[in-house]
Design goal:
By secondary structure, the chain is an alpha+beta fold. Among the domains are: about 80-200, Tetrahydropterin Synthase, Chain A, CATH 3.30.479.30; about 200-260. Helices cover about 40% and strands about 25% of the residues. It has helices at about 15-35, 115-120, 140-155, 165-185, 200-260, and strands spanning about 40, 45-50, 65, 70-75, 80-90, 100-110, 125-130, 135, 190-200, 265-270, 275-280. The longest helix is centred in the C-terminal third of the chain and has 58 residues, at about 200-260. The protein is elongated. Pfam families: Band_7 (PF01145). It comes from Kingella potus.
Length: about 290
């Protein structure tokens, strides 16, 4: 009879070691949640790398994942940025205030210059709470646009400015671009300026309405005069045509009456007139008798 072999004891993890291992994993997860050592930069964004001592790196972080164990990466937009300016009241050439001026600016920033802009205008960058994205130099562009628009409006007369929106938009865009380039070349691009509302002073608006009404009445009078002239010309042509017809009929009647007389011959002359030739008495003359 064989003796059964002794069973090999199965190793077991001691409860103390299991607790220690779980604590390490939990601590690692907490550290990841608190420090977020990875940051993702999406399309349309650029990363501005800021070290723990507050210094901003010259090179931006491109699209993709980046580690942030020893630094922080702020996301800045590189898309076109709209700036709304509303309820402005600049003065015209005659020093008359507009009742309201609203317009929008579209601008963008060179991605490679974003870290420099973030550092230079640190107190003038915008920030979206919902997305956590910074807007480079937003308040700078807004401030410059207000100044440029005031200067542009002062070039126009109050009565004419409402009809020159496109010209005003071009002046604002061109001058804003020049001002931004003067301090930061090859950094900003002002792509568009759109005026959504331009209201002159109420007295000026009333003057514009009166001028428009006067022009409308003047145009109506001119149109009526032209119509009267056309009708008079038509009547003249019609009357002349009728007179010529009557004259022709009377001439024909006279010719017929003259032709009915025996001693008159009516001969047309190239159909432009008539020649009447007398033939003498209606009785034939008797030839003299010959002598026998």
């Amino acid at each position: 009879m064989k003796t059964p072999a002794p069973k090999t004891p199965t190793p077991t993890i001691k409860p103390r070691k299991a607790l220690w291992f779980g604590s390490i994993v939990l601590a690692a997860l907490i550290l990841l949640a608190l420090f977020r050592p990875f940051t993702r930069i999406d399309t349309g964004q650029i990363g501005v790398v800021r070290t723990f001592n507050g210094k901003i790196a010259d090179e931006p972080a491109a699209v993709g994942w980046h580690t942030t164990f020893t630094s922080r990466i702020d996301k800045y937009t590189v898309k076109e940025i709209p700036v709304q300016l509303q309820d402005l009241r600049p003065t015209t050439k005659e020093n008359i205030s507009l009742r309201d001026l609203d317009f929008e600016i579209q601008y963008s920033v060179n991605p490679m210059k974003t870290p420099m802009i973030a550092a230079k205008y640190s107190n003038m960058n915008g920030y979206e709470q919902s997305s956590g994205i910074y807007i480079p130099a937003y308040m700078l562009v807004e401030k410059q646009a207000k100044s440029v628009s005031a200067d542009a409006v002062s070039r126009f007369e109050a009565l004419a400015i409402n009809a020159k929106r496109n010209e005003l938009e071009n002046i604002i865009r061109t001058n804003l671009q020049k001002d931004l380039d003067a301090n930061d070349p090859d950094t900003f691009t002002v792509s568009r300026v759109t005026i959504s509302n331009l209201l002159p002073d109420e007295k000026i608006q009333e003057s514009i309405r009166m001028i428009a009404d006067s022009e409308n009445r003047k145009q109506v009078a001119i149109n009526k005069l032209e119509i009267a002239k056309t009708e008079a010309e038509e009547n003249r042509v019609r009357s002349q045509s009728l007179d010529d017809k009557i004259l022709a009929e009377k001439t024909l009647e006279a010719l017929i009456k003259m032709g009915e007389k025996g001693n008159v011959v009516v001969v047309p002359l190239d159909f432009k007139g008539t020649i009447m030739t007398g033939t003498g008495s209606s009785r034939p003359q008797t030839a003299p008798a010959r002598p026998q």
